[in-house]
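Appendix B, record 7
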Amino acid sequence: MARPRIVVVGAGFAGVACVRRLERTLTPGEAEILLVTPFSYQLYLPLLPQVASGVLTPQSVAVSLRRSRRHRTRIVPGGAVGVDTRAKVCVIRKITGELVDQPYDHLVLAPGSVTRTFDIPGLAEHGRGMKTLAEAAHLRDHVIAQLDLADAAAPGSPERASRLGFVVVGGGYAGTETAASLERLTTNAVSRYPRLDRREITWHLVDVAPKLMPELGDRLGLAALDVLGRRGIQVSLGVSVAKAGPEDVTLTDGRVLPCRTLIWTAGVTASPLIATLGAETAKSGRLVVTPDLRVPGAAGAFALGDAAAVPDLAGGGDGGGAVCPPTAQHAERQGRVAADNVVAALRGTPLRRYVHRDLGLVVDLGGRDGVSRPLGIGLRGMPAQAVARGYHWAALRTGAAKTRVMTNWLLNAVAGDDFVRTGFQTYKPGTLRDFEYTDHYLTPEEVRARTAADGG
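Structure tokens (predicted):
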């Protein structure tokens, strides 16, 4: 008799936690486990701004999926681009471009999210994201290239002004950390450019919300605002981008900022894979699920992480409408609950509901600055940064990743940065449309047509 097949989509915090729990709980004869992911690593996303700023190397935050001693999951190198829950088939586009239909008995959907964009003229052509490892590595090269080119340009020229103008859109913790980290990169690098004046470099952080990082509360939000202000980062709240061009950015309040580096971190939306199911979705396209993470009306399917609107039972979600925020701490714990419920479904035992009280957020602003709220305790400065780095270091899954990150931190603190471009991305535009492949997904009709042709 063939073993039941469990297909897990996505190797983020939720998907990897689910797979690790399945490997530890199930015997090899109980089920076959497949993990669909284009890369054989888990990206530690919260440390991505430190990769862009050169504090960490890219390999440091790419945690191998093959180091586990219990590793027996078959990794399918590709991305899921469609799901037919009636036929129980997941359509996968392999990294070769080939489309394959993968039948399943149990499906765990943890495809994560993609950058949320709007129909803003020029954004797709000129905006840069911070959602993937490739984007972070490319962004570092790009920022240093702007310093190189500005140094070679004539003083006072429009080219020089636009190359030294940087705009980050998004006042959440991702955008704030990105702006803080990259501003430190340019400030520290300018000493190596004798023809550049630090005062020529301008950083703007823009967000349509009235407050900076509202999830941290007013006091810590103002503390972060103070840190950014002391560094010379101009924060504009209540405005957004109206138009993006190759050499400037126009804001909704009419200001035109010289800029050749527009970094877009204005939130996320669920992976386009979710739309192929034809199931009910909630805010930001997240799939509506039950408290035990099941997808209503889809036998054997579970969803979690950024792609699912999981009821926040600890925060009043059982009838109150609250859903868990798309953070790593929730995704990882949901992964373990999803694995337990898949095992329960296989063994015919009761499923359990997901309940977790949020432990707070940590924000590393680089240098000796940070703002954090662990367990509801507000911290700022060095204590906050120590908590942030300690939390991230402890959360890294492997000893090798922990060693690389700690070594990078110590080396950067002692020796600083050489501000060297790798040159690998020199001729690639590196804009939003180049990295997340949101146009690769099938429509629900295309998925049904494939499964029907295959006899589904």
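Remarks on this record: The chain has a mean pLDDT of 92. The chain is about 30% helix and 20% strand.
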